Amino acid sequence: MYVAPSILSADFGRLDEEIKAICEGGCDLVHVDVMDGHFVPNLTIGPVVVSAVAKAATKPLDIHLMVQNNTFFVDLFAPLKPKFISFHIEEEKHPHRLIQKIRSYGISPALTLNPHTPPEAIEFLLDEIDMVLLMSVNPGFGGQQFIPSVLEKAKRLRAMIDAREAKVLIEVDGGVNGLNVRDLDEAGVDIVVAGNYVFGSEDYAHAIASLKV
Ligand code: DX5
Ligand code: ZN
């Protein structure tokens, strides 16, 4: 299992130190939650802060857009060269076009699904993307409770990916901890995002290691 700590739960007054601690603590990606106050009822960070995150990080960035105007934000964050940019399928009329735009920047395109969105919604985009991010909470806030139906969804999605012989990773985001990570692994998940579980712990390296099942 790959681990992507969400910096939403970090201490933003000591952001540089916090990012270095997760990178030295063995994380695989640094998960960055971008919220615009419209698609979700919360507002986070823009390119000024994310460029400071990119400078401090020694691991690739995984940018999770929770915004209305996806194309605008893709253009804004592309110069920071993240590994992944994911956008919500519920908020995009022309996902195919946006996927191509992200790919043209040399960035891996990823699609995000809210807890209620079936995996079939993206079936005909699976050949175009590198990752699917399944939300296991309602997007907007850290520290919420894991929604267990994501396990069934991950299994269905894994079967769809395998049937198409596509090379697509599955990432799960929200309420992940040392207890549910095994079920996620069995459901075919490749990457877990964890905010509170990592940044709320005494020892980040230990928390990250406990998710690597
Ligand atoms: C929620 C964000 C998550 C969040 C996860 O909208 O996308 O990345 O920070 O936090 P935890 O792991 O605390 O649920
Ligand atoms: Zn996220």
From TrEMBL:
Note on cofactor? Binds 1 divalent metal cation per subunit.
UniProt-annotated catalytic positions:
33, 173
Q: Which reaction does it catalyse?
A: D-ribulose 5-phosphate = D-xylulose 5-phosphate
Q: What would be one Pfam family of this protein? A: Ribul_P_3_epim
Which leading EC class covers this enzyme? isomerase
Q: What does this protein do?
A: Catalyzes the reversible epimerization of D-ribulose 5-phosphate to D-xylulose 5-phosphate.
PANTHER family, A to Z? RIBULOSE-5-PHOSPHATE-3-EPIMERASE (PTHR11749)
Lineage at the top is: Bacteria, Pseudomonadati, Campylobacterota, Epsilonproteobacteria, Campylobacterales
Where do the annotations place substrate binding? 6, 64, 140-143, 173-175
**Name the UniProt record assigns to this protein:** Ribulose-phosphate 3-epimerase
Keywords in alphabetical order: Carbohydrate metabolism, Isomerase, Metal-binding
Q: At the top level of its lineage, which domain of life is listed?
A: Bacteria
Q: Name one GO molecular function term.
A: D-ribulose-phosphate 3-epimerase activity
Gene name as annotated: rpe
Pathway, per record: Carbohydrate degradation
Q: Where does a divalent metal cation bind?
A: 31, 33, 64, 173
UniProt-listed Gene3D superfamilies: Aldolase class I
